[in-house]
Fold this protein.
Amino acid sequence: MQVITTVSAFRQTRAAFDTLGFVPTMGYLHEGHLSLIRQARAECPAVAVSIFVNPTQFGPREDFERYPRDMDRDLAMLEREAVDLVFAPTRAEMYPEGYGTYVVLPAADEVLEGAARPGHFRGVATVVCKLLNIVQPTRVYFGQKDAQQTVVVRQMVRDLNIPTTIVVLPTVREADGLAMSSRNTYLTPEERQVAPAIYRGLRAAKERYLAGERNAEALRQAVIAVLDAEPLLRPEYVSVADPITLRELERVGEQGALVSLAVRLGSVRLIDNVVLGASL
Ligand code: AMP
C-alpha cells in the first residue's frame, strides 16, 4: 500500500494503474467506509482511498476542528483491506495560497442538507471535483447515508463531463439500527442509547408505505411520532422528497421517495434516510 500526500506524486503513481476504483473519505474509518472499499476491491483490479477532512464543507460554527481523526488507525485498516493507494493530502496541498475556484450547484442549496448547512455542498462538490481530477478513477463509490451528496455528485459528474462511473451502496448500520458515522463517537452513553430511535422512525414510515400509505405528510408524521417519544432527540427536519429532484412531495407516486432527516442529539448532529420504492 502506497500512502501519498502530494498531487504530483499521486499523478505519477496513478499512471502505473489502468482501471482504478476510488473511495473518497474524511477518515476515522468504520464498516460503512469498508463496505465501499470491499465493493471497489471486488469490482476493480486496483483501489485508491482518500483521507481528507475537507475544511470548505464545514460551516464556521460546525465541527471541523473537533472532527475525529486517527491516521495511524485508518492506515492499518486500509492495509488490511489490501488497498493499493492512499491519498492523504494536507490542507495546503488541496487549497494552496491563492486558491479561488469553487463548484456550485445552486439548486442543492435550497433543500435538505443544503438548506440546513449553507455552503456545505459548494465545499463537497469542489473537493469531489478536485479529487476526481487528481485520482481519475474508473469507478467511484459513495454511501446512501449521504443521500443528497450522491445526487449532487451525480449532477456534477454529468454536467462537467467527468469521465467516471458512480456507484452508490446501502447504509451500513450498527446491530440496533444506528447508521454508522464517524460522528457517533461524540455520543455520550446515554445519547447512544437513544440514537436507534432515528432509524426506528424511518422504519415506521417505511412500514406505513408498505402498508399502502402514499400521503407524504402521513409518512412524515410516522417518523416524527417516534422521534418525539425521545426527549433527547431534537429533529431539525424530516423530509419526504422526490428521490431525484429532492423537492418535497405531497403524494408518493411512481418515482418513490427519499425519507430523510437531521436530528440533534446532545452536541451531535446526525443524518439518516430510507428510500421508498426507488433507489439512489
Ligand atoms: P465520510 O468519511 O463521512 O465523508 O464518508 C465517506 C463515504 O462513506 C461517503 O460516500 C459516505 O456516504 C460513506 N458512508 C459514511 N457512512 C456510511 C455508512 N454507514 N454506510 C455506508 N456508507 C457510508
In short: Residues 25-26, 32-33, 35-36, 142-143, 145-146, 171-172, 179-182 surround adenosine monophosphate (CB under 6 Å). The mean pLDDT is 98. The domain at 2-169 is CATH 3.40.50.620 (Rossmann fold).
